[in-house]
Amino acid sequence: MSDSERSSPILTSHTQDHRSTLTVFKSILADAGISLSFTEGPHILTQEQALVVRDLEKSLGKSPENVQEFMKGLMLLCKKVKNLRKCVLPTKFRRNGELSDEAISIQQDSLFRIFLKTNYLQKEIMLTLLEEIAGTSSEELRDTSWLRLLLNPLRYLPHISEPATLTTKLLDILDIANFPSQLEIIDSIPEIIPDSQYNETAQQLSRLLDENDELTGVIIDCLNALDLDSEIRSQVQDRILAKILAGPSLKIFPVLLQFLLTDCKSQNLVPTLIKVRNALDTIMVNTEKNKEKESCKILIFNRLQAFAVSPKHVAEAWLNTISSIKVHSDHRPVDLLILFMLHATVRFKKRKLFEILCKLSCGEQDDESMSGFKDEIHMVVRKQLSSSKRNIKHRGIIAAVVMAKHIALRCEEQKDIELPDGHLTISDLPYGPAREAASLLELTGTCTGGSSEFTGLYYDQVAMMLSETSHLDKYFLAWLHETIIAEFENTYITETVPNNINDLKFSMQYVLNTPSESAESMAVNIAGLTLQNESGLILLLAPHFRLLRLAHYRLQAGDVSMIKTLLGCAVILPDVDDALDLDTDQARQVADCLFHCVNWFREIINGFVTQKVRATRSKVLKRVQDVIDVEKKLRKIMENIPEHKLPISYFDSSDVNKQQMSPMKRTQSKEPKEKIQISCYDSFNSDDSEQLSIQTQSATLNIEQLQFILKDYATKLSVLTKGQNIGLSHLIIVSPITAMSDLEKILPLIDAHFKIVIKKINKLLETTDGRYDLPDMFTPEVSELKACFGLVLDIYYHIFSWTGFQHSRNLDLLKNYLRGLRLSQTQSLNSANRLIVEFIGRLAGYHQQCLELPHAVSLIRIIECLYSIISQSQEIDKKITAVAEKLLNRRWYNSKGDLESGKNCNANIDILIKVYLKGADVKTISGLVGTLQDQVSNLNTKEDCLHMLGSINKQNFHIFYTGLCTALLNRVKTELQSLTNREHLELWNDTAKIMQALQAIAKARESKVNLFTKDSSLMAHVPKFRLTLETLVYKVKAMLVANNCSAAFWMGNLRNKDLDGEDILSQSTTVTEENQNSDEELPADDSDDDAVVIEENASNDGTGSRGSEVFD
After folding, report:
1. Which of 628, 698, 782, 857 gives a 20 to 30 Å CA spacing to 915?
2. Cα separation of 899 and 763, whole Å?
């Protein structure tokens, strides 16, 4: 555009006296600090632009005529295009007296942008700019640099008085603009349009998207930059999906795909991907040879691969989308392509990917077109199995089992099939899936090469296949069952006792079978295989039996009576009368034998726990006691060899070496890791008796067994509900929702035991007159009661903290839980809110039965988890605070009867304090601090505690002090949001009194070290707390200055002292300017006479710059 004197279309109507108007215009600008330049240089600001805006507001606000005269003058100035151009170019800031070209200058906003920040001018200036933008956009020009300059003043305005008008006019301009101008305007929309107009903008841009494919790219970029409401974004996505299904141009498909998959909500993702998949399939089947189209296809799938890899939820959605297709014929070529993308790039869930690939190529419904693909998979598996690299062979074992599963999988159960008697070989199997799957597993077993690691992994993977798969081929199952039983009997069962090894004598122990049940003396040769170390066969005992019983369970439809002899079968173990008689080598050998025995008993319990026959249930219960007894022996021996590493117990595919137990974790190793069996607890029934027992027909469950089962169940729930990674990849078989559904019938049984435990604790408290420190509270029997109480609380916490209860779809399950936990069923309750409130009330009454501090914290956490599900209630808030207060009023003792102390104790006390002070207002905090000020002097010895809160003693006082400071800080921040000036003053007054009291409390302590250096985390709060205090002080000062009463403000400084409370001699007692500005002072320890107070006069406030900083 030239600088000729053409008239801008918006300026032709101005015909008034130019000289007079320009004089007023220039005068207003000069008063505001703007010096116009009519040379080649920019316009000059003689003061900061914020002050320019302020002074313009003052001048224009004096009279409406001033605004009119100003706009007339501006129109006259901009009549020449070169002047208009200079008004949208940046200005420069130079102070008065520095107007020479050599003076240092700082670039500032353009005049038009400064005028747009002025409230009196914004509307007129905005209309002026929009009219000029409209005129420029309609011209047939390819260069948009002038249009970009006109748009710049509108970008990122701090305030827009009429956002709807701006949005409407700018979008209207798009309809008349030429293509280059459309691109420029759309690109600037996210920087110009305010967020309140994003939804309207999105709808208009969607309409434009349908009309012009050439604008697709820039419109999609613009829509991605807008923070749209979920509803509007969903509408836009539906519009784009419709465009995709209509067969868009291949050029714009990648851009549309990006918008659909960016920030797509998880609940909408799968339906979206299904439509995208249909469109992709249409693109793939188009075989037209065209270089441009082939390039577009490559670009599309490159974009698709990028979104298949990241974000993670998109990859998971693709997997779910493809795996949800049940009918084989419904799969399309694009499915395989996406699976290959995921398998090549995604590091997680490769097993699931391979599952889908095998389902497509190896299933019962596969067609001949996939036969070549099946052969390719088979070839890859064979190569992996024959590899000498450990990780590759691991993948091969897993892949072979997955492939065999899909080959042998039947769509429905096979009926009327007579299986041949006797041992089955592969040659006895009919041709087809059964023989093919058996051959693949036989090859896999052969390729393990006698390695316990590879064989154990193979056993565990086949066991997982059996546990998660129904309707496997009956011939295949029969072959697998016969093969496994024969191998197990030949390897682990013996009728003779081994000879002495390393002076250790062996015998058959823990036999439960009667002569009528087993005519011959049989035993599991644990000691012999452990000490002879025959290729690590003992390591395979537990996984081999797990595979055996699952195969039998599948083949016999849940009946395991044919292998029940193994439940009562004896085990061969060393005879040990006294662990102290063993030397180091013998102790290690015995420990390994006991460890494998525990693993064996646990697998036996898992195998028969679901059986209903009375004799079998009695034996299961005896095996539970055997596990307890053997674990006790193992613990005792491990005390003498703490450096000993116990063997691995599970062959996880991720890293077998991690399963070796280190000396630091030997306590955890005594509870071998096994597959989760959720029904373990379900097999016992409740009977409320004084002996705290559960009658299961002829079997009695004692408290020691109850503790064992509760602990096992709590551990399993933590894995299922919290997703804790304990190195067992096969635990994903049991989904959280399945486990939680099964819990509905188990929870009442657990609660029945809980009531019995509480009843026993109540009787105990009666005998001690409510005292918690008497010797009767620390006997072994009471320790078991405490453990059972805590374990039930742990189970409740894992249940009610499950994130699934935050979703309405699981509300019925929650209500069923709570109905089963009601103490009285006389009144019917259907509301989840009322059921939760009732159960919270019940839990709140158990504060007296909490005999250990961790149990108190668990109780509070359960209540908080339940409370998070329902709406806020002042009644519940008060109840939680009251429970926390009662728990803090107690003194807590460890298992030895000593007062609780240490890091864990402090952490638990901190939790209770935070809950107690969570809802405290300033008045409540003031009362607590006042009471604390009276009692803090009594904390002289380790045994002393506060009368107000018995849990607070000299060692953890700093935690309570920190909690009070944090509560005060949070409450003040909350209350500041909605207060009048007078209420502000009252709040500052109350806060100042509390801070003075806190300072006095600090002085009452022996030294600053006792209060502040006990906890490094407390020191981390010092800078933030100091900043808050400084902000508070300066805001008060600024408020007083603004109200002409600065003389009422006093500020003092405290002396620096050493740890003994003595003045630091290098510091003068006279306050200087240096120590007035120091930010390192700590609260003083002695009397108030140590403070030197300085009066701050109003004359010292200067221009009030500190106050302006505060108000800004």
Report:
1. 782
2. 23
**Residue-level pLDDT at 123:** 92
**Whole-number pLDDT of residue 1081:** 32
368 to 375, 832, 835, 1081: CA distances (angstroms): 11, 55, 58, 84
3-state DSSP assignment of residue 572: strand
| Residue 299, C-beta contacts closer than 8 angstroms, at least 6 positions apart | 254
pLDDT digits over 151-171, tens only? 999 999 988 999 999 999 999
Geometric angle at alpha carbon 134, from 129 and 138, rounded to 5°: 150
Q: Directed axis angle between helix 853-867 and helix 874-888, to 10°?
A: 170
Spell out the alpha helix ranges (H) of 918-980: 922-935, 957-975
Give the tokens for residue 961: 């002090």
Q: Is 743 exposed, middle or buried (0-12, 13-18, 19+ CB in 10 A)?
A: buried
Q: Determine what percent of the chain is predicted with pLDDT higher than 70.
A: 80
Which uninterrupted H or E stretch holds 511? none
DSSP output for 336-394: HHHHHHHHHH--S-HHHHHHHHHHHHHSTT--GGGHHHHHHHHHHHHHHHT-SSHHHHH
Rounded CA gap, 32 and 15, in Å? 27
Integer Cα distance of 657 and 651 in angstroms: 9
Q: Which residues of the chain have pLDDT under 70?
A: 1-17, 96-104, 247-249, 263-268, 285-289, 308-311, 328, 344-348, 364-370, 416, 422, 519, 534-535, 649-700, 723-734, 826, 1005-1022, 1024-1025, 1042-1112
- Of 173, 176, 182, give the one whose Cα is nearest residue 142: 182
- What is the reported pLDDT for 96? 61
- What pLDDT was estimated at residue 103? 55
CB 253 within 8 A of CB 283: yes
Please give the full DSSP string across 1-55, using - where no structure is assigned. Answer: ---S-PPPTTSTT--S-HHHHHHHHHHHHHHHTEE---SSSPPEESS-HHHHHHH
**80 residue type, one letter:** K
Place of tokens 């779809």: 809
pLDDT number for residue 529:
92
DSSP designation for 523: E
Instruction: Please tell me the predicted confidence (pLDDT) of residue 723.
Output: 63
Measured between alpha carbons, how far is 805 from 391 in angstroms, rounded to an integer? 39
Task: Give dist(CA 505, CA 501) in Å, integer.
Answer: 7
Contact 581, 640 (CB under 8 A): no
Q: What is the pLDDT of residues 595-606, one digit of tens each?
A: 999 999 998 998
pLDDT at 100: 54
Question: In this structure, are residues 441 and 404 in contact, taking their beta carbons and an 8 Å threshold?
Answer: yes
pLDDT for 10: 41
- Contact between 214 and 179 (Cβ < 8 Å): yes
> Which single residue is written with the structure tokens 């049984």?
749
Other C-beta atoms closer than 10 Å to the C-beta of 682 total 16
Which amino acid is present at 310?
A: S
CA atoms within 13 A on the CB side of 899: 16
pLDDT of residue 782: 94
**Given this model, what pLDDT does residue 523 score?**
93
Please give the Cα distance from 1040 to 1017 (Å, whole number). 36
DSSP 69-101: HHHHHHHHHTTSHHHHHHHTSEEEE--TT--ST
Whether residue 311 is preceded by a cis peptide bond, meaning omega within 30 degrees of 0, is: yes
SS3 (DSSP) at 701: strand
DSSP 3-state percent helix, strand, coil across the chain (nearest 5): 65, 5, 30
Q: Residue 752 is encoded by which pair of tokens?
A: 């029945």
Do residues 511 and 569 touch, judged by C-beta distance below 8 A? Answer: yes
